Amino acid sequence: MSTQAEVVKSVDSLHFINGEYVQSLSGKVKANINPATEEVISQILQGGQEEVDAAVAAAKRALKGPWKKFTLDQRIAVIRKIGDLILERKDELARLESLDTGKPIWLSTAVDISRSAYNFHFFADYLRSVGTEAYETDDTAINYSVRRPVGVVGIISPWNLPLLLMTWKLAPALAAGNTVVIKPASLTPTTATVIGEICKEAGVPDGVVNIVNGSGGVVGTALTEHKDVDAITFTGETLTGQTIMKSAANTLKKLSYELGGKNPNIIFADSDLDEVIETTLKSSFINQGEVCLCGSRIYVERSAYDQFIGKFVAKTKELIVGDPFDPQTKVGALISKDHYERVLSYVELAKEEGGEVLTGGKRPEGLEKGYYLEPTIITGLDRNCRVVKEEIFGPVVTVIPFDTEEDVLDQVNDTDYGLSASIWTNDLRRAHRVAREVEAGIIWVNTWFLRDLRTPFGGMKQSGIGREGGIHSFEFYSELSNVCIKL
Question: What is the arithmetic mean of pLDDT over 138-167?
């Protein structure tokens, strides 16, 4: 395994329009910073209205080109081939992902890149089973539905799981026959750039997949306001989602959002604490806590609280923070200086609000460069504190005791978010009872982040709009026309 000292260079992020890598007309570039070293590793082209117009025009033309005439078998073969090519380049893509994000290389390899490939394999397989509906109206008519592509889909992807979450959108969009314009996250565009080459090698016709790099304020706005973009799918934070909704309003685009989360992890005293601790370490601190599904609000039944805290703090202190390319590293660097300072500000706010930092909350010793933060556990805060209420998106969790089901449910649901939740109990009736009452789109019982891609994925409240996964993805990425035949 390479070390950070040996792996310092990335690849420049160009635009990919109509099957070709192209430069920006403005010539503007932005430095791509490795968050683990604070060094410039590549240049990111900064697109504008001209590049978005060119990409959308290419995507619109491609809707009526060879892509439209692909048979089901041809489309399935191409989509599966994209997944195969991602796996063939797994090591390269994992290295680029870790350079961009600061996450451990084992995580990029085992999760991000592997699951990105699986997104294509899954939707290639699932496409063969997708159907519509038919109804007989007594003996007077037959109605049946025809499924067709939405059209040009704008994909705006986040920086925390860049390839994984972008392909989660791209695979079903292509499976449904759409063309796309992708705006990668401005901080982590590298693996998205490579996807253009992979799609072309897999046999995707020119213009079907386009990529424009740049800021959300420029490229994102141009994409969401564009009259020829038919749908926008976005993963990111809630305020950006609100801005996109305003931009898309004039053209009445279809929207699919997966937004922020302040997810509860509810631990009852009858659960297996060793199993709980093992999974809670992951749900709290994996990917530096930069996962919208992380369980950052931990609620523990009071009779198990002291035992849980003792074990959880001890295990957290064992987590190795450092070089993403060291195989022993469990927690890498936060994404940027601005985000690092934002997360640290919440640690200071917790102290002001009366909280106690049991472990973490500071830069690890010996790491002078890079945006590193020790995994942080905070206690002593009540339900109304900002640190408990607001999404931090870093390796920071709060732990709060509770006495009854009613008490914990009242606290858990007292939030603007509703993305996911985890419930830990060996009482089957309690598990069903509590799961029924938790206001979240994804609820795990005695597990976390266990995904079946056939199931609905999305959030309630300010955590999102719509659902994706399985048939739910096809409902968003396609339009249905009803045909009524009078007999």
Answer: 97
- pLDDT at site 10: 81
Does residue 50 contact residue 116 with C-beta atoms inside 8 Å?
A: no
213 has pLDDT over 70: yes
d(CA 68, CA 78): 13
Instruction: Share the mean pLDDT of the chain.
Output: 96
Q: Which of 51, 97, 225, 292 is catalytic?
A: 292
pLDDT band (50, 70, 90) for residue 152: very high
Cβ atoms of 229 and 253 closer than 8 Å: yes
**Which 3-state string (H, E, C) describes the chain?**
CCCHHHCCCCCCECEEECCEEECCCCCCEEEEEECCCCEEEEEEECCCHHHHHHHHHHHHHHCCCHHHHCCHHHHHHHHHHHHHHHHHCHHHHHHHHHHHHCCCHHHHHHHHHHHHHHHHHHHHHHHCCCCCCEEEECCCEEEEEEEEECCEEEEECCCCCHHHHHHHHHHHHHHCCCEEEEECCCCCCHHHHHHHHHHHHHCCCCCCEEECCCCHHHHHHHHHHCCCCCEEEEECCHHHHHHHHHHHHCCCCEEEEECCCCCEEEECCCCCHHHHHHHHHHHHHHHHHCCCCCCCEEEEEHHHHHHHHHHHHHHHHCCCECCCCCCCCCECCCCCHHHHHHHHHHHHHHHHCCCEEEECCCCCCCCCCCCCCCCEEEECCCCCCHHHHCCCCCCEEEEEEECCHHHHHHHHCCCCEECEEEEECCCHHHHHHHHHHCCCCEEEECCCCCCCCCCCECCEECCEECCECCHHHHHHHEEEEEEEEEC
Whether 292 is catalytic is yes
- Reported as a single tens digit per residue, the pLDDT across 269-321 is 999 999 999 999 999 999 999 999 999 999 999 999 999 999 999 999 999 99
Is the pLDDT assigned to residue 158 strictly greater than 90?
Answer: yes
> Interhelix angle for 190-202 vs 72-88, to 10°?
130
Structure-token pair, residue 354: 């009366």
Question: Tell me, what's the pLDDT at 1?
Answer: 45
Cβ contact 285:331 at 8 Å: yes
**Residue 472 has which token pair?**
């739910």
2 falls in which pLDDT band (50, 70, 90)? low
Q: How confident is the model at residue 4 (pLDDT cuts 50, 70, 90)?
A: low
Catalytic residue among 258, 290, 391, 468: 258
Residues 10-32: pLDDT tens digits?
889 999 999 999 999 999 999 99
Residue pair 269/304 in contact by the 8 Å Cβ criterion: yes
pTM over 0.90: yes
